[in-house]
Design a protein that fits this description.
Helix content is 53%, strand content 9%. The chain has helices at residues 7-20, 29-50, 57-90, 92-96, 99-102, 107-127, 190-198, and strands at residues 158-163, 170-171, 177-178, 185-189, 202-204. The strands form two sheets. It has a three-stranded antiparallel sheet with strand order 4-1-5. Strands 2-3 form a two-stranded antiparallel sheet. α1 crosses α2 (29-50) and α1 packs parallel to α3 (57-90). It is flat.
Amino acid sequence: EEEPETPLQQLIRRWMNERHSPDILPTEEDLLSRLLDHIRSQSETVQLLRSDPSSSEEEHFRIMLVQTEVERVKFIVRSYLRTRLFKIEKHARYIMTNPEVQQRLSQSEVDHARRFARLTDQHFYNTVLQSLPESQQTLDDRILFVPSMITEPDKTRAVFVRARQNCPPVRLPDGTALEMQKGHISLTPYWVVEQLVARGEVELV
């Protein structure tokens, strides 16, 4: 039986999923909050020990190791948040027209998407749209054979996925079934394994 994941291992897995997924995944507010509290506590402890003149050379070495680990966790947290911010800004209008996607975001992320979409709309109107006929001054036109002006995540993009457990069969685009055993790695369109990713049965690599 496998040992349960540590909070850091959980964050690393979610970070990699977020980086490789074309869609924005559910936020991890509770996990981030716990890790940030731990980082804050560790940083305070390190500062106290560094200011203690009675600390031995061995203790100073341990302090350096703790500081290195804290910086590693900070890097992962920053990269995770930057990845989500990039996706939110890229798909801001899509997010604001899709309540189901908004449920995956924190309130601050939804607020940012709303502000970004509003600013982008205003910029497009001031620079281009106000010069067009009134019937063409919107960004959500649905014209036959013309790509949508609202950028949506490309779920047909291929991703590498590794099974964390034995998974139920999934249907591939050619109609065949793929049944992944634990440890199996496949290259497949994201939409094929989207639900497996959501349930934590597989991870993106």
